[in-house]
């Protein structure tokens, strides 16, 4: 074999090996039952869910944003000490992922929502803490429990009409929310109902979200129909109508800067173009108004808009320094306007 | 039939001739100084990815798939691959002319079509040899920044990127092969095309459709944040249409190159 042939063969061997490993990961990855970034257990969410929000807690707590605000809000490991002593749970250490699912109020019923928490829980300690709480003085009647399809469901504020509920789906999964929603999740988990798998549109949207983000959100048309379609024109003088969105997908990271990718799907290409133009107009306006102010100039360039058929993609990258600059700018303007008012 | 015509050996069948030209060209192309430079260019992201993994604080690093997307979209597809295509494809015939070795090829009983096809196939194999391992290694180095779990979700992206890189090399290669047979010194016009004409992809309206890069960019799923005009007017063209256009560019480019190469008389300077 000549040297050239050897190089070609070696190169194609590397590529073939890479593809084989990648395909192996695709076939063998235990997370393949997941839909997009949502673990397979998430399919127990109610079928009527209209939006799902996911937060990767490990990434969130590692982000500069959390580090900064945790210090301010005294959310330090010491602050969790009491909770940990009582329940064995330290949220920043033991919780991996949180899923928040919900649906806006409809003619058939009130607003619904449920939270799934994935992590490592000391079931005995948490259950004991809840049950002990039920037996203490004035709070005695606030907490009760019952069994639903073999699962212990703890009820909070049962006497107040709309009790909140909590239950362990397994050692690693906790469900919280209104009793009706928690019962539905348990039924879905047990296979009595199909759950979120029945909601083809939301499952499709979830499938478009790439795993690996610190936070993400998908919402369908029902959720978005409640958003205002008329917004004040950035040029002043009246309002402008935004085209209705069919779906919205948001993914974002907080480290090393705030990075967000928003994909909105309009009803057709023309509506998407209109929406993209509105967003471009807004960023151009910020750029114009920014004048010589580097913070506003940076803010305008932090966004980029891209249209792809009926979809509009909005990318945003906001460094923390820029947010600090904008905050300082806002405070400065507020102080200026206050001093001007005093002078008048 | 004249005595002279009788003396001529029969023409070598197309496939055999193309294979022979391919073998010869591959030997010259893969193990050459130009390939070494191009290998440096095309494998640079691998070195940077290794350095990044060694030096960067992975806890605060951006998502691996974002970095990988940036490497593929911004480095490979927009810059490195068109440049590699320019330097290899424009030289397919031009180097033979400049080195005055074209006579040896043309005086053999092989068709000009087989020469062009053999050389183009050698170009494709050489550039794929230098490009694809870089993309694969970068994928694994960057996407596994926070561990191997979750890699499966990005495998379709890797496969798509490899296919798009191959398609981009074919389309740019065919275009620059045409330029190589059309012009005596095609490198500067090729660079002007890449830097000037391809910038139309950042403008609004129909202009991006007249560039190669806009079609190539539309085929991948990575959409890194752009700056300047690209940020304002970034457009994504339909993927199906993009495949058809890139295949058409490849076929038309090669057909055009063959049309010129088959009729051209090569008068070598003394």
Question: Can you describe this structure?
Answer:
The complex is a heterodimer of chains A (344) and B (270). Chain A has a 12-stranded antiparallel beta sheet with strand order 4-5-6-7-3-2-1-8-11-12-14-13, sandwiched between helices. Chain A is an alpha+beta fold and 344 residues long. Chain A has helices at residues 3-28, 57-62, 64-72, 81-87, 91-94, 123-134, 179-190, 200-207, 221-224, 269-290, 294-301, 320-343; strands spanning 51-56, 95-103, 112-119, 143-148, 151-156, 164-170, 173-178, 215-220, 230-232, 239-241, 245-253, 258-266, 303-308, 311-318. In chain A, strand 11 and strand 12 form a beta hairpin. Chain A is built from 12 helices and 14 strands. With 270 residues, chain B is mainly α. In chain B, helix 3 runs parallel beside helix 7 (112-143), helix 4 (64-89) runs antiparallel to helix 9 (187-195) and helix 7 runs antiparallel to helix 12. Helix content of chain B is 71%, strand content 0%. Chain B has helices spanning 3-7, 14-30, 33-55, 64-89, 91-98, 102-106, 112-143, 155-182, 187-195, 212-219, 228-233, 239-263. The radius of gyration of chain B is 21 Å and the shape is globular. The two termini of chain B are 35 Å apart. At the A-B interface, helix 1, helix 10, strand 13 and strand 14 of A face helix 2, helix 4, helix 7, helix 8 and helix 11 of B.
* Rg from alpha-carbon coordinates of chain B: 21 Å
DSSP strand count of chain B: 0
Q: What would the average pLDDT of chain A be, to the nearest integer?
A: 80
Provide mean pLDDT of chain B, rounded.
Answer: 85
> In this structure, how is the largest beta sheet of chain A organized?
12 strands, antiparallel
Structural class of chain B: mainly alpha
What number of structural domains do the residues of chain B give? 1
How helical, in percent, are the residues of chain A? 40-55%
Low-pLDDT ranges of chain B: none
Cα distance spanning the termini of chain B = 35 Å
Sequence of secondary-structure elements of chain B: HHHHHHHHHHHH
Strand order of the largest sheet of chain A: 4-5-6-7-3-2-1-8-11-12-14-13
